[in-house]
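URGENT: need a sanity check before tomorrow's submission.

F., can you look over the DUF397 domain-containing protein record below? I want to be sure the sequence and structure line up before it goes out.
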Amino acid sequence: MQDPAGASHAWRKSRHSGPDNGDCLEVASPNRTTVHIRDSKAAPHGPALLFPLPAWEAFIDTLR
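Structure tokens as predicted:
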């Protein structure tokens, strides 16, 4: 899904990512209802996946 306002979000990536924006995912939480994920190589105007916040939290919980 394309995120039309994606360039204006406060995107963040892991501090473990390399300095060359290689194989990284960036995450933005522009509101309390969705989480946006994009490939750093496609930034700032590439597509982003949008997840409902509860689905994202469930995903993160399975990683812990």
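My own read: The chain has one domain: 6-63. The first strand starts at residue 25 and ends at 28. If you see anything odd, call me.
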